[in-house]
Inverse folding.
């Protein structure tokens, strides 16, 4: 295979930002088989005494997910939180109109938070601003975040939880711009409701951070006007604007799909521009940060069980992720890290079964999709300071993108250990890329490892019983001279290139 050549320059002086660990968050919704039949399955041989699958919990724990958004998603817009607390036997079985499913409330707020605690994740709570409003949101916060001495905080204590949950981040509804949302609203209606809800929530617990709903898709005609209008109404009361994006290959056009990360960068730039436009309009000294609290690739093979409504845990939005999907997914992670100056929270939607990196087979094993690995690598090695990678690589023109670079990359510098990790995707469907990296402004580095995810067939997937079809492999070791080395990147590949300070030299950070 003839390789195309390129150059990548990483200059520490141009560092982007400290990465907020919450960038590697996740999302678990009462939807499909994410909770029922996913993390929770009391009949399973590996279920713990609370009915949660220990094998699934272990896979999530390995991902080291700092924060998990809960309980929805579209589900939250019809959710009555009171149904999900108190003695299990007395909890009502409800019709969840968002997903036309049966919600038993077997897993509620206490059970979910205990599970999240066990795997070391914080809960990012969402309130219902669809069928409900300020009063229910305020009551939920009193139940969760107030120590005691009031009706609802004492009710929580009577349910067995003495200390407040003290959730730090709260979402003011979900995708309220979407016509599919229960009680979808105009930007003016939602912005006003978000402001009034925020005022009350911050009076109850001034320490919380609040997320207003931004655009849920760049395909909606209301984007980006929605974002500016909403923020104009609640700028002073909220801390974050949410952004959602799912990238798909609906057109079945591999070249075009592989470079679709570009649209995410443009989307982020536009939302940041909308935030800063309102900052300027208000002459405000405050900067709104982004909570990218739903992002993922939609696997080409995805299916949804619409045929069987009103059951518990229907198989919704499930599919096998291909090698190409993993590259686009890795590219989305690169986009998040590149804008870590403004994106402080990211939530992979979702963690289990529903567009999940982790899949479960009823009564049998849990298995890892291709996309599990870029997420794992980013969470493991993507903590520290983000540093841009200036790329000079060949370009390709596709249906939607003229002059798209064949690669995308970002570096992360761990200033505690001196290690540098460079995440790079080769977005070419057929060409190998020989990339010469040059690192400037770092101590003398040596090569640690090149971990790559690739496969000769872009559409190949992992599947039940064949979950080791595509797994990360250690590639070559490269000689580093003057902090320069050249790596060979396979077509359609996700690459993690790790360097560390030379052993001979004691690592001393110059402050
Ligand atoms: O993640 C699945 C769904 O996608 C969420 O419930 C919703 O917010 C989004 O449209």
């Amino acid at each position: 295979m003839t390789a195309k050549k390129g150059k990548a320059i990483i200059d520490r002086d141009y560092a982007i930002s400290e990465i907020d660990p919450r960038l590697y968050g996740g999302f678990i919704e009462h939807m499909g088989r994410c909770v029922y039949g996913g993390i929770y399955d009391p009949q399973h041989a590996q279920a713990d005494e609370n009915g949660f699958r220990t094998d699934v919990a272990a896979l999530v724990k390995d991902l080291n997910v700092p924060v998990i958004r809960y309980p929805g998603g579209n589900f939250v817009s019809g959710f009555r939180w009171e149904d999900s607390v108190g003695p299990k036997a007395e909890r009502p079985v409800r019709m969840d109109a968002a997903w036309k499913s049966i919600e038993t409330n077997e897993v509620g707020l206490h059970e979910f938070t205990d599970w999240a605690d066990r795997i070391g994740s914080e809960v990012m709570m969402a309130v219902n601003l669809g069928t409900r409003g300020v009063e229910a949101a305020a009551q939920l916060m009193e139940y969760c975040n107030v120590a005691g001495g009031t009706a609802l905080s004492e009710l929580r204590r009577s349910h067995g939880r003495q200390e407040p949950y003290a959730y730090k981040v709260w979402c003011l509804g979900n995708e309220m711009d979407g016509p599919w949302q229960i009680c979808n609203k105009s930007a003016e209606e939602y912005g006003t409701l978000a402001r009034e809800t925020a005022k009350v929530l911050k009076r109850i617990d001034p320490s919380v951070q609040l997320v207003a709903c931004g655009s849920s898709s760049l395909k909606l005609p209301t984007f980006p006007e929605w974002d500016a209008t909403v923020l104009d109404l609640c700028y002073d009361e909220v801390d974050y604007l949410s952004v959602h994006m799912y990238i798909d290959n609906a057109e079945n056009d591999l070249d075009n799909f592989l470079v679709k990360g570009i649209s995410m960068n443009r989307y982020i730039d536009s939302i940041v521009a909308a935030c800063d436009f309102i900052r300027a309009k208000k002459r405000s000294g405050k900067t709104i940060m982004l909570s990218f609290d739903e992002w993922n690739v939609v696997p080409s093979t995805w299916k949804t069980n619409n045929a069987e409504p009103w059951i518990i845990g229907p198989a919704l939005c499930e599919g096998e992720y291909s090698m190409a999907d993993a590259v686009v997914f890795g590219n989305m992670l690169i986009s998040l890290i590149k804008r870590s100056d403004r994106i402080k929270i990211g939530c992979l939607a979702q963690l289990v079964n529903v567009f999940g990196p982790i899949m479960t087979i009823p009564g049998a094993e849990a298995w890892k999709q291709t996309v599990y690995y870029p997420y794992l690598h980013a969470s493991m090695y993507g903590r520290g300071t983000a540093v841009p990678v200036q790329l000079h690589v060949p370009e390709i023109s596709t249906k939607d993108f003229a002059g798209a670079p064949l690669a995308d990359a970002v570096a992360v510098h761990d200033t505690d250990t001196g290690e540098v990790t460079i995440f790079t995707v080769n977005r070419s469907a057929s060409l190998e890329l020989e990339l010469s990296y040059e690192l400037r402004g770092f101590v003398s580095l040596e090569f640690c490892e090149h971990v790559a995810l690739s496969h000769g067939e872009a559409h190949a997937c992992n599947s039940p019983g064949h979950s080791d079809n595509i797994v990360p492999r250690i590639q070559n070791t490269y000689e580093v001279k003057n902090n320069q080395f050249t790596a060979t990147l396979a077509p359609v590949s996700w690459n993690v290139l790790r360097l560390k300070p030379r052993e001979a030299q004691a690592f001393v950070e110059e402050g």
User: Anything to note?
Assistant: Residues 29, 31, 72-74, 174-175, 294, 349-350 surround alpha-L-arabinofuranose (CB under 6 Å). The chain has ten helices and 24 strands. The longest helix spans residues 261-281.
